[in-house]
Amino acid sequence: MSLLNLQRDFRDWLVTGEDSAAAALGGGPGTLVYQNNYRTALVSSLAETFQRLVLWLGDEAFEAAAARYIDARPPSSWTLDAYGEDFTDFIATLWPDDPEVAEIALIDWTVGQVFVSPDAEPLAPEALAVADWETAVIRAVPSLLVLPIATNADAIWQALATGETPPGPEMAERGTALLVWRQGLEPVFRRAEAHERDVLAWSAAGQGFAAVCERLAASLGEEAAVTTAGTLLGRWLGERMIAAVG
Amino acid sequence: MSEHLTGFGLGMRRPHYRSYIEGTAPVDFIEVISENFMIPGGKPLDTLMKARRNYPLALHGVSLSIGSADGLRDDYLKELRRLVDMMEPAVVSDHLCWTRIDGFNSHDLLPLPYTEEALDVVCRNIDRAQEALGRRMLLENPSSYIAFPGAMTEWQFLAEMTKRTGCGLLLDVNNIHVSAVNHGFAAADYLAGIPMHAVGQIHLAGHVQGEHLLIDTHDQPVPEEVWALYRAAVALAGPVPTMIERDDNIPELEELCAELDIARGIAADERIAA
Ligand SMILES: [Fe+2]
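Output (structure tokens, whole complex):
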């Protein structure tokens, strides 16, 4: 048998676990060791990535979901950390009537991504020196992600993470979103305030501070728009969320 | 290029990070799993960078897949090169095994048949990896639970592989023991067939007895049989940088360092004997 065919047979055995596939490798107890190693490594990697989801679902339900995921999505990436990439969507199909479940998974996944995202020195509030506010663009640190959520998964996640009793699942107000980013080496998140998502999105699209204020003014009036944008920027600088303004 | 490895080291594991960052762990070098640090940024890289200032480093990979019949992945080699350039390790190693075929990645160290065809594939891939990394690699003998019919023994394969590619060997003494018991060969024959001049590093670890086979779990102290085999290996190889791999059921650092002292003692005995 060619090496290529042997390796494909081996893959088929790991993925399907069928007796005929094991027989192609010669059968025997060794094939079962590899089957077990393969599945164990994937389940424990998922459990490591989705720690709060494990707590919310309990070990048994989590492991059952993980086993179905492993059957449905054999791993393709060379880093085990990436294996959970589609797990959130998969969880959503398993718990269609409990939207908080997939959102807890989403927060687990996102916090993990933010944990290892590119480093960036945040702009210190006292270092803010803008030559021209007209054209200055607010640039967030590269780790910042905006996560729309429909439930109180954030409160549940936080309680699970700190060992407190989590609240029951509830729907969140329409338009709720989380800001997730890294302060130094630690991932943090909080709910976005009114207008915060808009100002961040417009800035990320490259619009200068003046243009952002002008768009805000459409709903707030001119004076309140400038105050709001200024207050938000001040808050973000204090939260080490901004890499540059200019 | 950075320093050579010498002496006695440990795999750097999370419960002991602080001791490595502070430089208080009494070891001569550290080893980490490369893939855990092939990431854009954040705390893991920050930790490694700090530990690296205190200790020479070995980067030990698990996903290169040197035995893949369809070759190596460019993106993997590029990421590994990035880490190597950043950390300037003394050693870069991976395993004689395969983990990936087509778009599938098993995340397990799977066995190769020791055939002429596999030898060609492995040597071609080693040439490519060493070129992409701009340096020599060490390849580790795996522990295995299946042995395929092949034209040669594992040690003959390793010897031929080092001769053809110039790569070095990371000799895992526990893996020799596990595979010897599982497949019924004599560990002494294995050691006698290894080109000891090519051995750049030694691994020690523990295993457990499964229902039918020994399982390489890295969750136990180094057992007596492995110490005995280590003694035989250093008698043949001379002083080789040696470390203990403990990946699970991780004890206090002091306990691992006490185990490392056993290795120091054995190596010292053998030096006197020589
Ligand atoms: Fe090893």
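Residues 7 and 265 of chain B are 12 Å apart (CA to CA).
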